[in-house]
Design goal:
Blueprint lengths: L4 H13 L4 E7 L13 E7 L5 H19 L4 E5 L5 H10 L1 E5 L2 H32 L5
Parallel strand pairs: 2-3
Antiparallel strand pairs: 1-2, 1-4
Pfam family, one: Polbeta
Protein name: Polymerase beta nucleotidyltransferase domain-containing protein
Amino acid sequence: MPSTIHERLPLLVDRLKTIDDVNAVFFFGSIAQGALKPLSDVDIAILLEAGTGKKDAMKRELKLAGLLEDVLSTSEYDLVILNTAPLRFAYTILKEGQLAFVRNTDQLIDFREKVVKHYLDFRHYRDQLDREFCKGIGYHG
């Protein structure tokens, strides 16, 4: 990873701001925790405009991946489109990630509320599945 990655992040955010359907940008993982190491990748989550379907999100993800590689001068990144991310992953990013940019605060709040509501609605079932899985593999911690 280039040593100037921290210098490139504001440039990346500035470029992402010019894309109309990019509603919010989060950094998560080691970069959000201030623990970026030479072998770390850059973890970036993007919330697209409300109502973006899966097909459009996939197309946008491919274009955004090219932009990230150009601006960061590395392929060592993970890009997550929050609109289509698994619920538990989206919840964790929203909870622990670092918000770098938001275009429409109301859309972000609505998305966050939806994710938290669904996460909490299904938490009991996830916890039960996790317990059964651990029991099935012989883990009793």
